[in-house]
Structure formats: structure tokens, C-alpha cells
Amino acid sequence: MINPMKNSTEMQNSCAIRFGQFQLFPSKRRLLRNGQQVELGSRALDVLIALVAHAGDVITTRDLVQMVWKGVVVDDSCIRVHVYALRKALACPETSTSYVVNIPGHGYSFVAPVTLAPLDVENAATTQSIPAGELPPRLVRMVGRDDTVKEISDLIKQHRFVTISGLGGMGKTTVAIAVAHHFRSQFEGMVIFLDLSAITDSSMLPGTLAAAVGVQYQEAEPLQTLVGLIRDMRLLVVFDSCDHVIDAVTCLAETLFGQAEHTHILVTSREPLRAEGEHIYRLGSLACPPEQADLTAVDAMTFSAVQLFVERVAHNQSAFALSDNDARVVAHICRKLDGIALAIELGAGQVPAYGIQGIAELLKNRFSLFWEGRRNAMSRHQTLNAMIDWSFDLLSANEAMVLRRLSVLTGKFSLEVATQVVAPQGHEMMVIDAIGRLVTKSLVLAESNNCLMCYRLPYTTRAYALEKLHGAGEFDSTTERHAIYLVSLLERLNVQGEALPDYERIQRYIEYLGNICSTLDWTFSESGNLSLGIRLAASSAPLFLGLSMLDECRRWSGRALAAGVCQPNGLPQETVWQEAVAIASMFALGKPHSGNAASGMSKVFDEHLGDTLRQLRLLGGSSSTLTWSAEQQEFQLSTLQAMTLSDQITDPKGIAMMQWMLGDADQYAIQHQSSAQDSRAGWNLYFSQSVGDDFSFSYDYRVRALSSLARISWLRGYPDQAVQLGRQALHRANHLRHPATICLALIYVSTVFLWTGDWSAARQTIDQLNSTAKLNSFEPELAVGLGLEGILLYSQGNVEAGVQRLNGCLSLLSVENHQVLATMFIRCLAEGFAATGRFDNALEIVCGAMEMIENIGETFDTPEVLRIAADLYAARPDPDFELAEQYLNRSLACAERQSALAWELRTAISLTRLHLKQGRINEAGKLLHTVFGRFTEGYDTQDMREARLLLESLSLRSATCHLGDAATGLNITLWQD
């Protein structure tokens, strides 16, 4: 018989091979009988293809092994097993046709006639599934899982039985396929891959395995019969996606592990089998970049989640490359999707339609659960909805209910929160048990936090469960229970009883902020509970303030006030509620409505007569807002009210609060105490023992007081003490790790370093300010940092760069309404313009600063603004010395009123130079000498060095003049003689 297929591999791959009722498609690895798929093990199919390729010839056992196993030494019994399976598959009860015969002593031969036909594409496509037992091809490139494959492979070698568990879409099947390919040569090709997702009858499982291995097994026979047939085979069996038949897989895997010692088992499931001998490998998320403001594309691409996202986008947009501008957005998307491979792939697939920023925006609302993935993916991996349906449908009614209701919780939550939100009291154990089961099924993630367990729903699972919650009509009732719990939580925190609890305690409640905001959204909605929302807004306002979340405080306090329920009669702690709303409104309503907010504060103040500490705290809240917005009259009123309480204050907290309030008074030159008192107060503040609640209105009392006293000490002429107090403030602030307090201390203390001329210390504090403000998105502090850096650059001679930063700073400050700091930057900007010869611009700017002073009242740096105006008039091309002297005299008078010896020194230096320019040698330096003599420290600071050099030059000039006069007198005498 002539074999039409010998040496015709190319024709074989492009044709169908027909024999009897069968069609063989070697390139597709398909065997059909009358158009129906024939289940045949992978090795048995290899044997068939080899024999058919040499139909009519006798193939020795050794040659057949070389064709099928390609150099791997196998026992003859293995050949017999697969030939037996092949004969069974080809057996036709209705005919006596034989296809494969054994030639004793020689080998095997395919004896049926065969014909070639063009590839029947339609019939070849009748099944898209991989034949039972056939190992699917591995992905061309698998992102971020190389180490995982190695770890799992090592576990299989060591323990034989491994289960890959994890959240749906994490890539368990992909990893399992890669592991199986890794082992293919080691198991002589005997790697059996069973996709169990299509099996609906668990009793079919042993028969499916038998068919895949190629042994004859009847379903009615005991499982031990199957084990006996494969006991001597060296196998790796992969049970993929066995969640819905987990009991049957557990039984089969345990039996194989215990009785077939050459069989290795790999399972993929969203929950462990809990079987004897099983080792669990929990497949985690792909690595995502952390929150990082300066993340670059190069940095982002070191993380596997970003690599996968970019690779999938590039498949649809070949020219796509990640830019630095997109790096942070892509990192946010990957984090939001919990590093889940399938979710990232689906999101990346929609970039051509929505863009990267569009995908990020969609994540803020609802990620589409119906975006489609690869067409050839398994049906449960086509969409996220199908993926989660696969798990949800397997849940009990109780587990499904708990998962639905947990979806109202954002971020992490404790068992206490879950039990309160999911079900009424009395059902706690039912909820706890269900959560444990959901964790096991990878639908709820459990994490350890400071030795305590906390839980969260993956973003995609939460979106799915939230849809189910709405569909079940349970959203409103569940969210209401959540709101009631949060109000109770904040009452236990006792934020209403204090303006702000201590920082360490408040940190424990940061994790609830997302839940508070989302619940507030519902309470103020049409279907929500308005009275409950008002209570929650009032209770959470101090929490927002303490964490510098002013936008949230402004939003919800405004909503509560707009609701028109300003007298919540019947609420417990009604007065406390009014206090919280009044405090919040001071921050929320801003300068245009400060009178309304202040009247509310005044009402609460009146109600608390007799409670000195609370009165002082309320006054501190109002003064904080007025200080930043430069409302002089209101600020002075609140400060004077605080001063009336000073005799009644004895506890350290009250003293600290008084110190920072009176320290802020230096912004308006309000006289309150002597320099000796300043120094003693700072010393006592630093070393006094903390009493726990040292925070109010976003800042630590002590740090704020120390920072203010540092500035006052410099103004009073004690620069060494100022630096010491400033460093104490920074030390305490950094120890507290409270961002808002750290920024406040850095702003105040860096100013002291700039005044004293310590450029190195100033650079260090300004850099820390900028990094802290940037990390915490403190926009006003970033603006101030920009201005302080401008002053530093100008002071070090880099004038243009300094002017550029000062311009940017003032633009931002005008938006943020931080007017009290504006004059400091305006006068420095004027100096910068003057240094570059732009006197008209400089004078225009300084005149604007003086106009601002006229509007808001005299500030701590009014003497300096007047001095700079004088210097400009004296230095311009057409100098006006008379006007310059008038401004200097005004500056001196203002500095004397403020007891600001430091400003007096600077003005005295300017006046001395003015006299020298006018030739008034006899007057020059007299005032400077007097002011310089009043200092007792700080001789190495910049101003003191400058004053000393000027006085020394004047002294030298005077001595030269005296020598000149004496020489002139001698010459006259000689001439007369």
C-alpha cells in the first residue's frame, strides 16, 4: 500500500485526513467522528498522528517513542496504555474495522486506508474548546508572574499537591498553564489539564480524568479502579476552575494524592479545597505603584500592573508609549482596580474609546462590568460581570446577602462595622461567619493592620455587589444603618465634646473618612435622611478640621446650614452640636460671610460663659480664620476677649492656647507682654507635660505658640532666642508627625532663619515645607513655600529666579485669600524689581502694599514696608530724599509702637545710608549707634553684621576726617610762620 502522506508534513498540516467515519486535523489537533468531537488524551492523539503519517508501515516501539516523546525515555507499558486508549476511541461497535494493529516483535501499524481532503474549516470549527486533557497554549508573554511560576513549581516538586487560590480575574488559570508547560518535559509529556468550568455533573469528574489520561474506566466502577489504572504513571494533573464542583475535586485529589504517589496535582480555585496534603498558594495582585506625586513613566514601568496596562493599550494603539503626564493616572487606575489582571486588561482595552483620563474618571463613578475582553477567552473571563457571576451564583443566600450589604462600605472595615451595617443587633455571629466564608472564597480581602484584622471589598467586586444591593431594594435601609453607626462612632470619639481630640486618637479614625463622606452623600439625597445627615455633618466637622480637610468641612457644613435646620431641638448635646456647626461655618463660609459665622460663634460663646477653656477655644477658632484673611477689627476683638480670660487660665493647655493666640497678635502689633515673658513662656511650653488634647483648629497649641514666640523674639531684638524657640517648635512638630502642624512651624521658623540670614537652615526648612505640603495637597502652604523660596533666592543673589517665584506665590495667595502673608512677599518682590533697575514696577508694588495696609490696618511688617518704600525713593534715578526720609521716620515711629527693635535696626541702617547720600556726615550713624547698643545678642546675624560694618566705616571716615583737619591746621601754621 502506498502511503500518500509520507514526507508530506506541509500537506498534512493543510489537509484533513479521512479514514472510515473519522476526520483527523493534525494542525488543529482535532479528531472527529461523523463531525462530532472525539475525546482523546494528548499522548494518544500524538500516537495516532504519528501512525497515520506512516499509514501502512510498521513503526517500531523505539521509533514511535522518538516521534511522540522526542528523546525522553519511557517504558513500553506507557506505549501500550496509549495504544489501548487509542483503540478504544476508534472502536466502532457497528463494524469490525481495525485501525491500529500490533505486529509482535516489530511494532505497530495503522492499517486502515486514508485519504487527504482540503481542510474542512467549518467542521474544524465545530468546537472551540481544547480537547479534554489537552494543555492549552501558554500566553506569548505573561506579565509579572515569572517568580510566581517558579515558586509554585518548587512547591509542586516538594509537596506534590498545590492549590492556587485567589480572587477571580487575578490570573490563576494563566499561571497554572505556565506551570504545566514548565513541567511538560519532566513528566514525559503526561500533563493533563482539565478545565472543569463546563462540567455540570460532578459524577463525571473521574470519567473525564480517565478519558484525558487514555485509560478505560466505567462510571459505575469505584474510584479506586481509576487510581489503579494510573497508579504507575508519572502525571501532573491540573484541575482548573473547580469552585462549583469543589467537593468532588477534593475527594478525587485526596485519593490521587494518597494512593498514586507518582501523580502530582495542581488546582485553581477561588477558595482552598481544605483537602489532606494540600498546600495553598494565594495568588496576589500585580504590583502597583504607590501614591507618589513625582512618579515618572520610567518609575511606573517597573511595576507589573502598569506593564500589563501599557502592553494591552499598545496592542490597540501601536504608537502608544507611557508619558510622565500619564504615569500617575495609569498608576491610579491600576491601584483602583486592585492590581487584578483581568480588570486591568479590560480597562486598557477601552482606552481607544475613552482615553486614559476618561478611564480614570469612570472609576470615580462606576467601572463598567460589561466591557468585553479577548474573543477567545473563556466565557467567564469575557466580562467582569461574568467573572463575578461565576462566584456569586455559588454563594448561599446568607453569604450573598452579606456581600451585597457590605458594598456600602468604602475602603477597609472592621468586623464591628460590618456587623452593625449588615444586620440588626442579634445577628452578629451570622454576619461574622459569612464574612469568614467570603474571605475564603476570595470575595472579601482580609488584611492585618497593627495586629488587628481588617477587611475590604475589591473595587470590581464592590461595584458588582452594589448593583445587586440596589436590585434587591436594600440600599437605603443598609446605608441608614451605616449612618446611624457612624454618628454613634463619632460620639464615642467625642469630637463634639472637644474642638478636636488629640492627634494620636484621631488617626485611628482616618479609615472611616471615605465612609463618612459617602454616607453624607446619601443622607442629603432625595431618598436619604436629612436629620441624620445634619447630625453626621455636625459630628464630623471637627474631624475634617483636625485633618485639614477644609473642602469636605466646607461642603458638608454648608449643606447642613443650607438645610435650614439650625436648631435641632431634641438632640442630645444640642449645645455641642451648635458649637460644631458654628466652628465649621467659620471655615466654610469664608471672608464674605464671616460676620454671619462670627455671630453664630458669639451665640455659642455666650452659652458657654463659665467654661473658660471652651470660650478660649472658640475664640481661637475665630481668630484662626481672621488671621489668615486679615480681618483686623474682628481679630483684635477676639484677641482682646481672649486677654480678658488670661487671669482665669491655669492649666497648661489653656496657657498654650493663650500663647499662640497672643503670638498671632504680633501680626497686628497688639501689645501683650514683655520679651522676658516671651522667653519664659516658650521655655515652659516646650518642657511642660502634654495633657493629651493639644490640638485645635488643625494645629498643635504648643507648636503654634512656640512658632509665634520665635517670630516675636526676633522682632523684639532677641534673634538667638528666636532661633532656639524656632528649633524647639520644629522638633515638637516633627515628633508629632502632624502635617498641618509641621507646615505651620516650618512657615514661621523659616521666616526667622531668613531674617537672621541663616541661608542653610532656611533652605532646609523651606524644602521640607514644600515636600510636606505637596505630599498632603496643602495648596496655601505650597504657595507660601514658593514665596519663601523666592525670598531665599533673592537674598542669595539669584534675583530673577526669586522674582519669578514671588510672582507665582502672590497669584496663588490672592486665590487662597491669605492676605496677612501677602505684604511680606510684596515688599520682597519690590526689592527684587529694584535690584534689576525696574524702579517704576517696584514703586507700584510697594504702593500697593501700603494701600493694603491702609485697608486691613497696621501689620507686623508695616515698618519694613515703609522702609523699603523709602529705599526705593532714595535709590531711583531721580531720587526724592525728602519723601524717603518721611517714610523712614514713619517706619521708626511704627516700629517703636510695636516694640520691634529688629525693624528699628533695619530702618536705622537705611537712614544712615540716606544721610551719607545727602552728605549729612555729622548726622549719619547717630541713631544706628543708639539702636545697635540696645541689642544684647545676635551679633552674628546678617542685620547686626551689616550694622556693625556700617558703624565701623563711619568711625573710620570720622577718624580720617579728624586727621585731615589736623594736617590742614599744621599747614596753615607753617605758612603763617
TrEMBL record:
The keyword DNA-binding applies. Coiled coil: none annotated. Residues 14-112 form the OmpR/PhoB-type domain. Pfam families: HTH_77 (PF25872), NB-ARC (PF00931), Trans_reg_C (PF00486). InterPro entries: HTH_77, NB-ARC, OmpR/PhoB-type_DNA-bd, P-loop_NTPase, Sig_transdc_resp-reg_C-effctor, TPR-like_helical_dom_sf, WH-like_DNA-bd_sf. Keywords: DNA-binding. Residues 14-112 bind DNA. This is Winged helix-turn-helix domain-containing protein.
